[in-house]
Amino acid sequence: MKIYKNIKKCRICGSSNLKLIINLNSQPTANQLTSNFNQKEISVPLKLLFCNTCKTTQLSSTVDSKYLFSKYVWVTGTSDVAKKYCEKFVLITRKKFRDVKSVLEIASNDGTLLREYRKRGYRVLGVDPAKNIARKANRENISTIAGFFDFKLSKYISKKFDKPDLIIARNVIPHVEHIHSIIRGFKNLSKKNGIIAIEFHYLYEIIKGLQYDSIYHEHLYYFSLKSISKLFKKYSLYPFDYDKSPISGGSIVLYFSSNKRNKSKKLKNLEIFEKNKKLNTLSTLKTFGDKSRKHRDSLVKIMNSVKGNVYGYGASARSSTLLNFAKFNHNKLKFIMDKNKLKNGFFTPGTKIKIVKFNKNKIPKSSNIIILAWNFRKEIINQFDKTSKHKFIIPLPGKPKIYEIQ
Ligand SMILES: [Zn+2]
Question: Could you tell me the pTM of the whole model?
Answer without folding.
Answer: 0.92
